[in-house]
Design brief:
The complex is a heterodimer.
Chain A lengths: L17 H34 L29 H34 L4 H15 L3 H13 L8 E3 L4 E4 L2 E4 L1 E4 L3 H29 L5 H20 L3 E4 L2 E3 L2 E3 L2 E3 L1 H28 L2 H9 L4 H31 L11 H13 L2 H30 L5
Antiparallel strand pairs in A: 1-2, 2-3, 3-8, 4-5, 6-7
Helix pairs in contact in A: 2-3, 2-7, 2-10, 3-7, 4-7, 5-6, 7-9, 8-9, 9-11, 10-11
Chain B lengths: L1 H7 L21 H9 L4 H27 L19 H12 L7 H19 L6 H20 L19 H27 L4 H16 L2 H15 L8 H27 L2 H9 L4 H16 L1 H14 L11 H8 L9 H31 L5
Helix pairs in contact in B: 4-7, 4-14, 5-6, 7-8, 7-10, 7-14, 8-10, 9-10, 10-12, 10-13, 11-12, 13-15, 14-15
Classes of the chains: A alpha+beta, B mainly alpha.
């Protein structure tokens, strides 16, 4: 780079130099983008002035003045828009988290069943996947909501499990666990178990690498996670009682209730995403070449070991990246809550608060940034996981 | 057969190696054998089979009964539906709205013509061995112009051949197709440009493209539609106002363009570096290299991914009902608010679900067919 050729061919116009052109082109592109944003900015400022809307984030401290149907934190209509934001965010996160959890389980089961040697089961799962994948999610959400709100009245509830769970048009009523004295000890026991398990598995791995002795990590982990809290529960005398929902007048009192909006949204998100996850799992397992399992069998590994130690680790490498994008999709799709009135972030903060304050730009920008950060956070976590399980190449 | 009976007969002797083949044991061939191998090969498998059969038994007869055997197909309002099942009279009476929304009756021929042109335009894209392919391609390229003038009209006076039909009158499947086709047509070139920008050596261009793509892919489509319906009017100078549908189209196109860009980038990355170098060695300029060498190969690899993006886009068009446009799903939601048809929401949703399903399933089958076709002789 240091030596410049002086006596090269005669230079043409300076425009024919690639680097000059690149700089010019980029300068032009940058300039155009800046002009675009300045143009929009001045227009917006003028329009907002004409409409008499003041910009800024002061509205977050103004009282919201409307009720939210479902809230995980205490909320009344006199609270601020800022609090509405957190109410909505928590609702979004709760439906996304439960949806991801359920969709993963259902999707993995379906994906494995799709590969089953059982012709009927495999074809059934195929039909499920093809039907669910090819119908818009919004339609499915609206459909399940329509199904739920046309269920019978509370007096004619559908009853599950011997008078403890009731399903009717007002929602899903379940017994609520009430914690008594000493419940903290159970939580501490669970925490201790969760800390011990990874340490134990690491030690077991080290020992196996050094001596070849195998320690039953899985069984011990299950035993610890169930056993320790159980022991604590026995010591404290089972400090959990259940409050059962009871029919009083026209509605149920007591217990926990999941509103039909939540159930419909959660169910539709789960069913829809599980279809995609099933296909991802199937493709991932099929991507592991047949020779791998044959080699494992010929080494004398049991079928369960072959699956756990040979097939799954290799399949996971194929499965994880598309699985991440499904998790992201589910989180973003939870914003369709607005169509059925589930009070998520978009429906409360991005909908009602926007209409009441008129602060369109601030509200939409905050909402978008929240989703953007959730997306980046999930993909960062999954990238970390992906890096850990990635093929170590020489 | 005679050999077999002889073979079983006692006292029959054959020279070594001359014994006729014995028939396979009963239960390993034929229908019973198939059942054993595929449905009842082990105890867990048999349990699964029985569960699946029970599931089918529990689900299929009620659904068929509701949809066909106990359904009413004719009538003028829901009170005419006396059977226990579905009331398809709704579709019979309101079918036009499902298909065209509130498009005026006397102008419906324009929708039919536009639909026919669209059909002709799709053919040369889908299949490469059809007659008059060049002519049809010309039609495809002109489609945005012809379609726009056909549907929205040329002049406001009612005497004109094509009087204006305002976009709020568009609806139903027509609107869904307009949004879907526009999104598909617009997102491909924008997506290619973004993908090239993302792989460019120029840092400023690359940063801008990456920011745009990652931003759009990180937010839900609804927020972008909200942006287009609430924020865009604030961005424009006073007196200038975009049509609501146009704003929505821009939002949908930019949204799917970001996804398209990522699909195409995958194709660009799969092209070996030698192809770029060879093109550069031949003295091709950047655009010539892309147009003649790289893009034809890259796009061909990612056609299945592109079709999948189209399927997603087509399903996502249903979101426009949230900002108040009456697409297929919006109409399905609206027609049952009519006092004559109130409460028939299941029929309405089922009908549009079938329409969406046919389109999306058709596209996915096409993508699989194409993948199989392209795969021959293209394995590395």
């Amino acid at each position: 780079m240091a030596t410049q050729t002086v006596d090269g061919p005669k230079r043409g116009s300076f425009l024919s130099d690639q680097r000059t052109r690149a700089i010019l082109f980029q300068g032009l592109a940058f300039f155009l983008v800046v002009v675009f944003f300045v143009y929009i900015g001045t227009n917006t400022a003028r329009n907002l002035e004409a409409l008499g809307i003041s910009t800024g984030f002061d509205f977050l401290n103004a009282p919201a003045g409307y009720d939210v149907a479902m809230s995980l934190i205490p909320y009344t209509a006199t609270d601020t828009h800022g609090r509405v934001f957190f109410v909505g965010l928590l609702n979004t996160l709760s439906v996304a988290a439960t949806g991801i959890f359920a969709a993963t389980i259902l999707g993995v089961i379906l994906g494995v069943l799709r590969l089953s040697k059982n012709w009927l089961v495999s074809k059934l799962v195929y039909c499920y996947v093809e039907v669910v994948r090819n119908i818009p999610l919004l339609l499915q959400i609206l459909f399940w909501y329509a199904v739920l709100i046309t269920l019978p009245h509370p007096k004619k509830s559908i009853i599950f499990l011997n008078d403890s769970i009731f399903l009717n048009k007002r929602g899903l009523y379940m017994p609520e666990p009430l914690t008594g004295d000493g419940f903290g000890l159970i939580l501490i026991a669970l925490l201790v178990a969760l800390i011990i398990v990874p340490i134990m598995s690491r030690m077991a791995k080290k020992r196996q690498e050094a001596t070849g002795q195998i320690f039953p990590v899985f069984l011990t982990s299950v035993g610890l996670i169930i056993g320790l809290p159980l022991l604590a529960a026995i010591v404290t005398g089972f400090p959990v009682t259940f409050e059962y929902p009871e029919l009083k007048g026209f509605n149920f009192k007591g217990g926990m209730v999941l509103r039909p909006e939540f159930v419909a949204l959660w169910f539709a998100l789960t069913v829809y995403t599980a279809a995609f996850i099933a296909e991802i799992v199937r493709a991932g397992i099929q991507a592991v070449s047949h020779g791998q399992s044959e080699a494992a069998f010929s080494l004398g590994l049991k079928p369960s070991w072959t699956t756990r130690m040979i097939i799954l680790p290799q399949a996971l490498r194929v499965i994880v990246p598309p699985l991440t994008s499904q998790y992201l999709n589910l989180t973003k799709n939870s914003s369709l809550a607005i169509a059925i009135g589930y009070p998520d972030l978009v429906a409360t903060f991005g909908g009602t608060s926007l209409n009441q304050t008129g602060q369109a730009i601030e509200v939409i920008m905050i909402t978008m940034l929240v989703y953007l950060s959730i997306s980046l956070l999930i993909s960062m976590m999954m990238n970390y996981y992906n890096k850990r399980i990635a093929l170590v190449e020489r | 057969m005679s050999d077999m009976t002889q073979g079983n007969a006692p006292g029959q002797h054959y020279p070594p190696g001359q014994h006729p083949d014995m028939p396979p044991p009963p239960g390993t061939v034929g229908f019973v054998g198939w059942l054993r191998n595929n449905l009842f090969s082990s105890i867990p498998n048999s349990i699964l089979t029985i569960l699946a059969i029970y599931l089918l038994y529990a689900a299929i007869p009620p659904i068929l009964g509701w949809a066909f055997f106990n359904a009413d197909f004719e009538g003028a309002s829901r009170t005419d539906c006396t059977a226990a099942g579905a009331c398809w009279a709704l579709i019979d009476v309101r079918g036009k709205q499902f298909l065209y929304g509130f498009y005026p009756d006397e102008e419906l021929w324009r929708v039919y013509v536009a639909g026919f042109i669209l059909l002709l335009a799709i053919l040369p894209v889908l299949f490469d061995k059809i007659p008059f392919r060049k002519l049809l391609f010309a039609n495809t390229i002109l489609l945005p112009v012809t379609g726009f003038f056909l549907l929205s009209g040329t002049s406001g006076s009612p005497e004109a051949i094509l009087p204006t039909v305002e976009t709020p009158q568009w609806g139903g499947l027509l609107l869904t197709m307009v949004i879907g086709v526009t999104g598909i047509v617009a997102s491909l070139p924008i997506g290619i440009a973004l993908a090239l920008g993302r792989r460019s050596n120029m840092p400023v261009v690359r940063t801008m493209c990456v920011t745009f793509i990652e931003f759009v892919r990180g937010v839900p489509l609804i927020t972008i539609l909200f942006m287009s319906s609430v924020m865009v009017p604030l961005f424009l100078p006073e007196g200038v106002n975009f049509d609501k549908l146009l704003r929505c189209l821009i939002g949908v196109s930019l949204f799917s363009a970001a996804y398209m860009a990522e699909v195409i980038r995958g194709g660009l990355q799969a092209i070996p570096k030698g192809q770029y170098e060879a093109a550069a060695a031949m003295g091709l300029s950047f655009w010539k290299m892309m147009y003649f060498i790289i893009l034809p190969q890259a796009l061909r690899i990612v056609i299945p991914g592109i079709v999948n993006t189209f399927i997603g886009l087509f399903k996502d068009t249903s979101l426009v009902l949230i900002i108040g446009l009456f697409d297929l799903l919006g109409i399905a939601k609206t027609v049952v608010t009519d006092a004559n048809w109130i409460g028939l929401i299941h029929e309405s949703y089922a009908f549009v679900a079938v329409i969406y399903w046919i389109f999306c399933f058709g596209m996915s089958r096409y993508s699989i067919w194409l993948e199989a076709k392209l795969h021959t002789g293209h394995k590395r």
